[in-house]
Amino acid sequence: MKTIKYTTKKPTVITIDDSPMMTNFLKVFLSKDYDVTAYNSTTKALKELSGGVVSPDCILTDFHVANDLTGLEFIAKLKEVDPIIPVLVLSGSCDMNQKIACLKNGAVDFISKPFNPMELNVRINNALTASSQLNQYRYAV
């Protein structure tokens, strides 16, 4: 008989946004269900991901982080470091070309601001569930 291990560890989510108000909101709201590490710079987050300082289950990044990598550039560089981490992109702009480019290049979701917080939580949970199922399949084969 298989033994099923249950864990009480919350999934780890990195948020990246240059707005202190949005960063604080995401941290407070998401902390109910996830361990949240917040960054205001895609470059700093990428550096810590590359160095193994953080190892998230999921990343939520703003598309436009002032004076930094765009969401699209971040996704491209992240895929060189860890192609498995699911990335969701937030954007105040509803530019369809940005959305399609992010999704084509590996984002699992693209969410327009303003967003419904409960919907955001469901989308993060869906990304985590899909990633977990994919990892279970990879290790089973």
Could you name the key traits of this structure?
Rossmann fold, 45% helix, 141 residues, 5 strands, 5 helices, alpha/beta, single chain
Characterization of the model:
The chain is of the alpha/beta class and 141 residues long. It has a single domain (12-140), classed as Response regulator (Rossmann fold, 3-Layer(aba) Sandwich). Helices cover 45% and strands 17% of the residues. The protein has helices at 20-30, 42-50, 71-81, 96-104, 117-140, and strands at 12-16, 35-39, 58-62, 87-91, 109-112. A five-stranded parallel beta sheet has the order 2-1-3-4-5, with helices on both faces. The longest helix is centred in the C-terminal third of the chain and has 24 residues, at 117-140. The mean pLDDT is 91.
In short:
By secondary structure, the chain is of the alpha/beta class. 45% of the residues lie in helices and 17% in strands. The chain has helices spanning 20-30, 42-50, 71-81, 96-104, 117-140, and strands at 12-16, 35-39, 58-62, 87-91, 109-112.
Number of strands: 5
Q: Which class do the helix and strand fractions yield? A: alpha/beta
The dominant shape is globular
The mean pLDDT is 91
What kind of sheet is the major sheet?
5 strands, parallel
Spatial sequence of strands, sheet with the most strands: 2-1-3-4-5
Order of helices and strands: EHEHEHEHEH
**Rg over alpha carbons:** 15 Å
- What is the name of the CATH superfamily? Response regulator
Layout of secondary structure:
Elements: E1 12-16, H1 20-30, E2 35-39, H2 42-50, E3 58-62, H3 71-81, E4 87-91, H4 96-104, E5 109-112, H5 117-140
Helix pairs in contact: 2-3
